[in-house]
Each structure stands twice: as C-alpha cells, then as structure tokens.
Design a protein that fits this description.
Elements: H1 4-14, E1 19-22, E2 26-29, H2 32-76, H3 81-86
Antiparallel strand pairs: 1-2
C-alpha cells in the first residue's frame, strides 16, 4: 500500500503544474496553495481507493476460507453441499 507522502510525490512528478480555466476563457496556473490542496485531495482519494480494494480482497479471502471450512466440516460428516440442498437446508 502506498503512503500518503509517496502518493503526493508521484502525483507531483506526474503533474508538476495544474491549470484551471477553459478554451474560451483561457488557462491559468493554480496558486501554490490550490496546487498543494488539489494534489493532497487526489492523494487522499487514491489512498481511499487502495484501502477499499484491500478490504474487498480481504473479504473475498475470508469468504473463501469460510466456504472451505464449511465444506471440510460437511466432508467429515460424509455430506456434500448437494446433500444439504436435497435436505432443503
């Protein structure tokens, strides 16, 4: 997982300047304060997305482990998931 400082450093390398405006009105560079705030917001969003992806991966791993444990218990009893379905469970 990326640290916030690493994310900010990478974003600053990728976006050394930021501009605001439009083709009609023209573009101006963001002030240093606005630039820093924008980069920090982007880094926060990136870290939140990484955390969410990690949580989803952990949930999937736990679900797979729970399923394997349940199947192992059924096997100890000599049952399969199909047997439980046939019993209406």
């Amino acid at each position: 997982m990326t640290t916030k400082a690493e994310a900010i450093k990478a974003l600053k390398l990728e976006y050394p300047t930021l501009k605001s405006g439009s083709d009609k009105t023209g573009y101006t560079d963001l002030s240093l304060t606005d630039y820093e705030a924008t980069i920090e917001a982007w880094a926060n969003n990136q870290l939140a997305e990484e955390a969410q992806a990690a949580a989803q991966e952990a949930d999937a791993i736990k679900a797979a482990a729970d399923k394997a444990a349940a199947q192992a218990k059924l096997a100890e009893l000599g049952l399969t998931a199909d047997d439980l379905k046939a019993l209406g469970l």
